[in-house]
Amino acid sequence: MERASIDSNVLSIIIVNYHSWEKLRNCLDSLSPKNQPAINLEIIVVDNDPNDLTMNEFCDIYPDIQFVKNEGNYGFAHGCNTGSLLANGSVYLFLNPDTIVPEGVLEKMLMSFKTLGEHDVLSTNKNTKNGKFERTQRFFPQLGMQSGLGKAFHRLLNKKALTEAFSKDKAIVYPDWVSGSVVMIGRETFNKLHGWDTQFWMYSEDADLCKRASLLGGKIAINQHLNILHDHGASSRINQTVSALTKSEVKISHHVFISKHFKGLKRILMHAELIIIDTISSSFYLLLSLIFFTSSKLKIKRLLWLNLIKYYMFCVRKRQWLSPRSLGKDHRFDV
Description:
- The chain has 11 helices and 9 strands.
- The protein is α/β, with parallel strands linked by helices.
- The chain has a 5-stranded mixed sheet.
- Helix 1 (21-30) links the parallel strand 1 and strand 2 (40-47).
- Helix 9 runs antiparallel to helix 10, helix 9 runs parallel beside helix 11 and helix 10 runs antiparallel to helix 11.
- Residues 330-335 have low confidence and may be disordered.
């Protein structure tokens, strides 16, 4: 697929959809010209289910939006890269289909982005329908900080510095990485990074993109004065099997990140630490699920344990840490 031409007056919004049509409808409505009148938008929706015919209906409802059917569910990163190849804008905004953008936010976000450095990445505050805000303090994985307890201990030890760095009074704060649900990045930087890394089938591809941008000298920024609604997990809570699959892919993606960004003894120790954490926690819930067998939440934990055991056996056989789901096809992004 050839790259689209560049139009510096266009903001390209790229959305990867998988069975989230009702959520997507709300998202697209929030991006309509009447709600975002000050910006020239092009919207590209990549559907990752080749067998879902709902897209035909949406093509009729939203004739000004470009829909593309991916040939398979090759993961979030692959869908994003596919959409970017069709984009004309000099700035990309990757959005989840379960987001809703309030009126005027995109204009302010783009203005904020243009004040940043060449390789910087920008996101916004994200809140749920219940008004709860997603955490802005996000750190790259480190030894001793891969469990919830380890992260909590780190925050406690650095409470004063973190409170200052992420003060609500600051318009812009700088975490290590931002969620892939809302990511604004310049086209040139995106090309230099060779897009999203499709070694990550799902999850941690956002941390990886931010890590690579920071290695170029870019900063990862959140504008705390801008909010986007995020009804998190719309496409990952279809049923218990899917929920267990997505939870296991979260843990698998951490191994992929470690394998890519760490070397030597530290990489070995981080893999080992993560295996121990996952094994202990999943085994505990497995025992509970055998006692309370009918609990739907514990059934998910039971399936998660089984998925992790299969994954670790797969890693031993293949001598690598990638998810089996990312090995079906080569999806490298070429500029």
